[in-house]
Structure formats: C-alpha cells, structure tokens
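Design request, tokens follow.
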C-alpha cells in the first residue's frame, strides 16, 4: 500500500476480543494492516448498517455518548483552533452524531460533515440542523478546492484504501487549507498488548508511515504530536507536490515498529501503573457522564453543558 514491498510479517492472529484477526507488518515500511482486507463494498455496507450497532449498541447516539463526544469535540476544537481562520469552511469526515460539527458552527465556522451511518447522520441533521452528507468519502461528491480545514478523527484507519481517501480530500481542500488527521498510534503502549488490534481498524500507522503516505499523496506534514498517553497520533498536513517515499528510512521504521511491539509484553504492561490508572479514569468518566446528562434530554442541552467554558462566537 505504501512502499510496494511484498514482504510482510504476521504480528497478530487475534483481535482485542480474542476473535480471529490476522494482522501483518510490512517489512519494507512499517505499515500494518488486516490480512485479508475486506472488499470495499462489504466494508461500505458494514459502516452503513452494522458498525454503530456492534460497538455502541444503538442506531442513534445515546445521551452519554453525546456527552462523551461533546467533551472530545471540545478538546479537538482546541487542538485545531490555531489552524482555524475566522469563518473558515470546515469538513468533518466521520462526523458521527455531529458534536464537533455543532461546535464549529457555534464558533462561527461554516461546516459540512460526511457520515456513512444514516441514523447518526440524520440525528445530526434533525437535532442540530447541521449539513451532513450521508455516505463515505469514496461515495460522495463535494466541490473542488472549497475547504479551509478538513478533519479526520479516527477515520483513516477504518478505510479500505487510505491513499484513495487522501487523494479525494486533496481535491476538496483549498491550496491554502490544512488537513488534520488523528489515528491510533501503532507504537502505543498504553493498552495491553492483546488490545492493540480491532476488527474495524484495517490499517495501523505510526508517525513515519502516516507522514510518508501523506507526502506521496500530495501533503507535507507541518505538525505532528502524540496524545499524553502515546495512544493517538495527530498530524496536520498542508498541500504540497507529491513526492516518492524514502525507502531506506521506511525500512528502518519497520524494524523500529517490530522492536517496539516485541518489547511491549504482558509482564511489562501489568507491572506498570498504567492499566490500573486507566481503569480508575474510565470508572470516574462513566460516573461523571451519567451525572452530567441527568435531567438533560435534548442533544443541544447536553452539548451546551460540554461547551459552557467556551464563549460562543
Ligand atoms: Zn510497505
């Protein structure tokens, strides 16, 4: 996909729930993916019909999910703010229940969302009056060179061909615009070793493979950071001339990834304080979420409670 090497090593046979899932690591570049990859049509049907039900147990966002996504949206908005000009036109790919889109509009931007799940997309349209296109990046059509900022939070790893997605986004982005992408970090050690792979995540990136793929598809990374726990990788790209990948650097990257994954053992994980702190944080989060949504029925009221600290534009 990235380097065209035909040599990949099997690094996992199971997903995080213990179900069979083969994941391979390319020896040429360090990109990892599910093997075999699902057919694009089957994947589109899965996101349209099954994904939300499988992972959230619902066909429209529940109140606690709205609250959780609202809190995430606030963090994401703060992360993106330095690249947002006043009245920017923003595209949120994988806009879900519309929480981040709602915040963009609340803060004076023009915003469009793309969401493959009809229930979530229609909820965002109906509940908040947002502009959401139902479908995937591969299916929908948007005007060329129209967006100042395109955001993809935890979307690229779900797509059948990330290169195709990036090429389409490149067309929709203004020459002066930015593309912001967050994906799980393949090298993360904040989760247990057997929790790394997820059936819905088809590709696994680290900083080197994500920036190299962007470069090949006509984007130059101008900023990259990891979340405090190292679990997520966030990269901001600007449109640039496409450039071939640096094969020598990527071969070294593959070695680096292989070493990192090998070093992240069960023993090391469970003798560190990380998993216990994480469990406590999750429990506290669930308690806070239930407390926060009590007495609030409308999505808008829940989101306004999340965004109370941010003055509206
Ligand atoms: Zn490769």
């Amino acid at each position: 996909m990235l380097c065209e090497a035909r040599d990949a090593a099997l690094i996992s046979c199971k997903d995080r729930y213990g179900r069979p899932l083969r994941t391979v690591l390319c020896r040429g570049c360090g990109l990892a993916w599910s093997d075999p990859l699902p057919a694009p049509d089957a994947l589109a049907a899965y996101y349209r019909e099954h994904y939300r039900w499988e992972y959230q147990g619902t066909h429209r966002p529940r109140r606690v999910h709205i609250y959780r996504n609202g809190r995430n949206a606030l963090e994401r908005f703060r992360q993106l703010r330095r690249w947002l000009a006043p009245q920017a036109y923003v595209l949120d790919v994988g806009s879900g229940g519309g929480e981040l889109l709602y915040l963009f509009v609340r803060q004076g931007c023009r915003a469009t969302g793309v969401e493959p799940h009809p229930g979530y997309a229609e909820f965002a349209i109906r509940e908040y009056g947002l502009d959401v296109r139902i479908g995937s990046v591969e299916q929908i059509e948007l005007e060329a060179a129209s967006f100042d900022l395109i955001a993809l939070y935890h979307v690229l790893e779900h797509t059948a061909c990330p290169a195709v997605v990036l090429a389409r986004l490149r067309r929709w982005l203004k020459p002066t615009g930015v593309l912001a992408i967050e994906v799980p970090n393949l090298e993360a050690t904040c989760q247990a070793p057997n929790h790394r792979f997820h059936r819905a995540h088809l590709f696994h990136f680290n900083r080197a493979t994500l920036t190299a793929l962007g470069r090949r598809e006509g984007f130059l990374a101008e900023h990259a950071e990891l979340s405090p726990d190292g679990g997520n990788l966030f990269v901001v790209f600007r449109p640039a001339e496409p450039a071939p990948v640096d094969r020598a650097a990527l071969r070294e990257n593959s070695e680096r990834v292989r070493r990192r994954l090998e070093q992240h053992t069960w023993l090391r994980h469970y003798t560190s304080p990380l998993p216990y702190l994480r469990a406590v944080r999750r429990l506290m989060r669930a308690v806070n979420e239930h407390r926060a949504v009590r007495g609030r029925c409308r999505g808008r009221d829940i989101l306004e409670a999340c965004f109370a600290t941010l003055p509206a534009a």
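Comment from the thread starter after seeing the answer: thanks! The CA atoms of residues 118 and 134 lie 6 Å apart.
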